């Protein structure tokens, strides 16, 4: 029995201090380019690795008849540094997730309920578009513009995964029309006309 | 109008050849450490980015009352090089995915239907275990042993995402008892006794 | 002297075969997620590491009074795998590089001649905009929308560097209006009105 | 001479502040996903880059007739962020390092003295096994189960290197039988029988 | 209008906290292997992404008739974590940047004015050398010795980009002769003779 | 029993094709920036993961009383893509490994026999030097100049590990004096005098 104890002593002592299988986000400590600082291992519990915030459908009683609910590292600290995150998308019939991109991640989209058109556009302006039914998965390569529209008669539920714990989310019409970009610069760099730019700024709340 | 054409000429000519937003797997060309070779862009279609093979429940009429169906880059070539893949897990009541690890990827697990116990064990032998209900997500850090068991009375459906397009899958009892590892070496390196090793080799089909 | 020769024999023989300081692109061999295949080292010359194609000003007699000329790995094979590439931007007075993003790279922009307004928009719709003069450098983080406009009275010359040998280039209005995206989907996902979408499709050559 | 001084002034001033050739671990500052925070460069000495803790044979008077002594970044701070670490394994005749894996690293194993059987098992349950003699090197790809057994009549000394400064170490029978995993779940997910699970829990100190 | 507000509420609330498109260096907080800690996003301004320090020619009235002025993350904090940095090189006629390497980055060199000979040496002692004229770009693969010499009759201006926000800069003759390396060790490991080592130590200010 | 077979069918069929736990180098197929192409898994044997070429002491009857023998991926194909390689260094009394750097890797050095002085120089010309005895480990950060000298009275044996399967090896005096660099350019960029450059070119076999 003494030998067993000695055995434990050696192996455990040598491996213990070096253990860092994960780096649960300490949301109050400094962040770096690779993510949040790590919570002290002694304070980590299973709840850091479980997130229940996507269990309920989002409210789609809005302009776009859609909702996005994210589970990125800022809400789900166990993801920090692991190169993964998720989101839940709910789309009422006719609902749409506006054209957007994720600056730092590729994405898989799984249609759990309903039927949607999903598409992305590549650098050479080719459109990759498909009507997806329940159980279908589509992948959007990193940084490219894409969107989803519920083309069915029932609500759609979509589960999204990202190749980063912090993928970013740039919504095209928000970047243009809900920001402080001056109308003149928008027009010059998108070829949109002045009336349309001003209409959308008024609609979406842009200044500038 | 001539100016417009000139404009197209310049921008398009300069960006066209350099486009490589993605690298759809050419399953017949050489693989490298970063993944499969890329299919010629001209032959890529939207179907390379869509996978429908996970839309149907797996057959759980088996020993473990469970099935795993993967969507890795070898089946879903659009994933190649994008750092993501997926799998579908079906668990009949009482079903279990055996203890396993993914040598090259972290994993998120989303319970779409039913209720499961999921757990992983860290390097210092701490168990992180939780009973998950519909809509819950759990994350398993890279390379650690983990499993899922359906503890409910109804079938469970789980969607799994990985931080690699080729995550690997090492099932513990298969590695030990369905391989050609000699019984003597298994016993010496796991402390299991000879009877048990031989029983499991017979059950699971090991040689050696 | 024999000793010297022996010395050479040992060190040179041991290091020679392992040398791979670079991986000059073989444009005809398979590509993978990490870039082009490597040219046989014996065929590599200094000319693979030198590119002269950006030495001449681009033609700005066009719609946007601008030109972009890229030096990505497809034209400058020595860059392959080294995480760098370049481009030259020429802007006549009033010229503009349209709103665009690089899906796979961050960018530095150096104003070599003239004066330009440059700006990018972040995920939370903040605009980072500045009038740059000769010698100023601005950095655009990966994947975010940005643009440059010559606000001076003289031609501007800009040198651009990317953190990838293959950064991609998605021009916003081309992705929307020079592609095959159906007008209805563009409108639904950008809130633009039908007249404007059709005007721009006609202008830029979109189908769909 | 003035020119020389001016020269020094320019080159040194421009390069000095940017120097960060290394990031010696500051074990008391926050950790992040990429490793420990860096010690202030001014406090770094050569001793941060040298480790003498593996110079003495480990005590093999134990249950497994073996010892592992690690030199990971927590003990050898100069390794931090450099993608390398080491360990020393001593095996008395008949000694064995139990079946284990490193979740975050590949490993090379060099037999410095003696003769050992080493093996790893791949995802498809293939066993790669070899009797190694003095001077032989074997490589274990990341995250796969492997072990070493001294099959000779003399003590064996093994030097191990890892592709991470923090590779982790999951010992299979510890994860199962020295943890708080409930016996029922172990049995369900490994197919081991109840008697054997309880015997090993008693032997190795498991709870649950 | 209420719907619009609700829409904003959902999308903005879900994406806001997770935004980390960039990690502007907080030069006073801890550094890690991946770079500086991030400045609080609320304090980031456009000036963090713009650097004007390279707009003026460096003083070349010195020993080497050359100056290097760097824009690494320590001076240009917006670069932190983005894998890019820059430098400006001024060379009077006959001026030279001494033989050096960047331990952590590849480099592109653009000749903006004048004419220079640039060269690097690979691991197998092959020299890749070229006389570059205005507008030419050369790339130096990571970690290899290289240099530039102004061979023209007019001052040369060179813009340099690196594949790291912190590339390092090891000047060969400084490492040898301006450091505390003992002469005996320099001689033994470079084959230089004692007189020459001592002459250069005196010239460049070495001790040891 | 049928159930067992079904079980095997499902799990094995789903995981089999996706398995790529390793990428053993196929030395005859194209290389890419991430390494060699992978050998067909069916042809991989344990011998691809074992290398015996470092078991014998190198010949130190030469100019530098030293030998280096490498185990990089070109000789030890199992290392390909795993971020590790090794080398054996033998040093007769008074022997020295000349000043050199590894452009693409950090290094650990373990003194297995004898006593050596090892040192590296950082970007700010600080020397990190130490006399190492048996069992000591030293780490050299990536890309920096370093060397080892046997200062004892007995042969020294050193085991070296690298953080890349293809680390490169640039020997300083070879790069300068055994290459085709013109004497004039060497002198201008190193401050060495003409006599010394010519003496070393004659000694080491340089042309140019």
Automatic annotation (TrEMBL), chains A, B, C, D, E, F:
Leader sequence segment: 1-17
Keywords tagged on the record: Apoplast, Glycoprotein, Manganese, Metal-binding, Secreted, Signal
Matching InterPro entries: Cupin_1, Germin, RmlC-like_jellyroll, RmlC_Cupin_sf
Protein location: Secreted, Extracellular space, Apoplast
Entry superkingdom: Eukaryota
Keyword Signal among record annotations: yes
Cupin type-1 domain location: 52-198
Keyword Metal-binding among UniProt keywords: yes
Family statement drawn from the similarity comment of this UniProt entry: Belongs to the germin family.
Protein name, entry field: Germin-like protein
């Amino acid at each position: 029995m003494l030998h067993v104890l000695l055995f434990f002593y050696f192996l455990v002592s040598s491996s213990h201090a070096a253990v860092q299988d994960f780096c649960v986000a300490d949301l109050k400590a400094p962040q770096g380019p690779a993510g949040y600082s790590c919570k002290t291992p002694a304070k980590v519990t299973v709840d850091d690795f479980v997130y229940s915030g996507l269990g309920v459908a989002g409210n789609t009683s809005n302009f776009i008849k859609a909702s996005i609910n994210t589970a990125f590292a800022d809400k789900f600290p166990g993801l920090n540094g692991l190169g993964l995150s998720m989101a839940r998308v709910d789309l009422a019939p006719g609902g749409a997730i506006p054209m957007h991109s994720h600056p730092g991640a590729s994405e898989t989209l799984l249609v759990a309920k309903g039927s949607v058109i999903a598409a992305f556009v590549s650098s050479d302006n080719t459109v990759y578009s498909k009507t997806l039914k329940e159980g279908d998965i589509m992948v959007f390569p990193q940084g490219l513009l894409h969107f989803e529209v519920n083309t069915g008669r029932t609500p759609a539920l979509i589960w999204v995964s990202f190749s980063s714990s912090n993928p970013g989310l740039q919504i095209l019409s928000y970047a243009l029309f809900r920001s402080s970009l001056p109308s003149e610069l928008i027009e010059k760099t998108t070829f949109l006309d002045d009336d349309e730019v001003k209409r959308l700024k008024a609609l979406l709340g842009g200044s500038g």
